[in-house]
Amino acid sequence: MAGSGVFAEIKDGDGVFRYYSDGEWKASASGKSVPIINPTTRNTHFKVQACTQEEVNKIVESARAAQKLWAKTPLWKRAELLHRAAAVLKEHKAPIAECLVKEIAKPAKDAVTEVVRSGDLISYCAEEGVRILGEGKFLVSDSFPGNERTKYCLTSKIPLGVVLAIPPFNYPVNLAVSKIAPALIAGNSIVLKPPTQGAVAALHMVHCFHLAGFPRGLISCVTGKGSEIGDFLTMHPGVSCISFTGGDTGIAISKKAGMIPLQMELGGKDACIILEDADLDLGAANVVKGGFSYSGQRCTAVKVVLVMESVADELVEKVNAKVRKLTVGAPEDDCDITPVVTESSANFIEGLVMDAKQKGATFCQEYRREGNLIWPLLLDHVRPDMRIAWEEPFGPVLPVIRINSVEEGIHHCNASNFGLQGCVFTRDINKAILISDAMETGTVQINSAPARGPDHFPFQGLKDSGIGSQGITNSINMMTKIKSTVINLPTPSYTMG
Ligand code: NAP
């Protein structure tokens, strides 16, 4: 059960989950809590502390102090602690997964996978960090005209300071550790602000780092609504780097933040282009997996299908046959389609569906909704004047746009404000590579649905989909700065003989 056993200390006597500061679990002086609504029952399931600005100040202060010592800690020792945290996390996968089921309605098996994958990510990061941070460069001055070989430059990667990590609701554990582990191995301290839906899973994950024995103050976790505490955190002068994953909030943060490195992973409208020569069974399987896994609540979900008119009927038929087999219901029953995260998300999705209906889209299934649960829906004959052609539903609703040329598909993809991922299905590899070159997205998958992993692959969005690149190696590099030390030798007094 959440907050019991080794996790008992993370909850106070009133059942409110504590926040984590300076190596201790604390109740906020605000005396206020934030409810976490179970998306399935729509009742309050957990409560977390609403932290105050003073508490944030204290956290940042201790994070700065702890970081100074941590930067001097040998890499192997940092890695050892990370490996320990990974093992503790995996050992406690069941209670953490249970929180994911209750807070964000993640299907039970996927919830366990998220925790295990996060443990793997931490270990991979520890190993990668030891390798890439153990290396620096040695340069000499003679390439600069008029210089003797008297300047030696030594460069190494140094930490930035305090990294503020803000993950979204859909992977509150995995997208938190994808920021925490690179920051720590690189010698930074971490202040985590988890999403409200998903905060309790994240607090359990943080406790695993606590149990692993990290120094006090190095890792902290502030809870509270992003709309209330978010600006104070992101504009805090003690923060040296922000790693954020989420929606449009990230665009606002990047305009308000100071002169510090930003890593922004934002929304997407990932297009799936299907050509006449595609393997349509493979395409249909990927459209369904890509479009409907975790009820479409993934940044890299297929969010629009752009299919050549000549094969569209056949593709839609194959997709519909698979949609009929999707199970719909409670996350505890491990259903394919579970309630979307909040009532306002469900209302937003419904708005997109009604707009498409009014403008004449073909409904391949009847639209059905009970509370936050929306049945999977494929909308055919979607046109560019419909909102769903451009907006991110973040739900189990997938538009199909029929195209008459590859150029039309590429044009639609590139006209989007987003540029996260895309995919193309064709048996012609030359064509696939040309299309990949033409698509303005951070990644293009050939003959498979968009996906974030494996976690060490570079992952990035163009345009409104993000700033910078992640993946384990890129994140470690992003959370460091190059430091140069130049040794100036005396000018040699040799004679040319
Ligand atoms: P969101 O509403 O933007 O929230 C993301 C995080 O920001 C949450 O922790 C939220 O806390 C916090 N927040 C809210 N207001 C803030 C503020 N003023 N300052 C600082 N932080 C603030 O996104 P979401 O609904 O959780 O996630 C869905 C979105 O994330 C989708 O657009 C999806 O495409 C995107 N996403 C992108 C990637 C990627 O890698 N590109 C991966 C996953 C998801 P509260 O929960 O307390 O409001």
From TrEMBL:
- Locate the Aldehyde dehydrogenase domain: which residues? 25-484
Q: Which residues cross the membrane?
A: none
Pfam families in the cross-refs: Aldedh (PF00171)
Q: Which reaction equations make up its catalytic activity?
A: D-glyceraldehyde 3-phosphate + NADP(+) + H2O = (2R)-3-phosphoglycerate + NADPH + 2 H(+)
User: Which InterPro entries does the record associate with it?
Assistant: Ald_DH/histidinol_DH, Ald_DH_C, Ald_DH_CS_CYS, Ald_DH_CS_GLU, Ald_DH_N, Aldehyde_DH_dom, ALDH-related_metabolic_enz
Active site positions, chain numbering = E265
Record's Gene3D superfamilies?
Aldehyde Dehydrogenase, Chain A, domain 1, Aldehyde Dehydrogenase, Chain A, domain 2
Question: Which enzyme type, at the first EC level?
Answer: oxidoreductase
CDD domains for this protein? ALDH_F11_NP-GAPDH
| UniProt EC number | 1.2.1.9
Keyword terms of this UniProt record: Oxidoreductase
| Protein family (similarity comment) | Belongs to the aldehyde dehydrogenase family.
* The protein's name in its UniProt record: NADP-dependent glyceraldehyde-3-phosphate dehydrogenase
Species for this entry = Rhodamnia argentea
Q: Which gene encodes it?
A: LOC115743540
